[in-house]
Specification:
By secondary structure, the chain is α+β, with helices and mostly antiparallel strands. About 25% of the residues lie in helices and about 40% in strands.
């Protein structure tokens, strides 16, 4: 699962499978949440309320990008060097 965001000890990873479709796993210490993208909702797990609120807000803000990403076939992606990766610029 690729890491899509890190913030204050929260790690978010995107996963796509047949059971839940596109969803995000949110890890914070020993806590884990699973957030569905469409519709946006927590489907399992628990975490402190501020983690849950922040994660739902972040996923909601980036929902369209994450839904678009599920259409990318990662097996076709070309690996790049660390030097090349350091030159990448991401839009906000």
């Amino acid at each position: 699962m690729p890491v899509i965001a890190k913030f204050c000890g929260i790690v978010m990873r995107l996963l796509i499978d047949r059971t839940f479709g596109a969803h995000v796993h949110v890890f914070y210490g020993d806590f884990e949440l699973v957030i569905a993208l469409n519709p946006l909702r927590v489907i399992q797990g628990e975490a402190p309320s501020w983690v849950r609120d922040w994660a739902l807000d972040w996923v909601g803000h980036h929902q369209s990008e994450l839904l678009f990403a599920r259409n990318i076939d990662l097996s076709l992606a070309m690996p790049i060097s660390r030097q090349a990766a350091g030159q990448l610029v991401f839009a906000d």
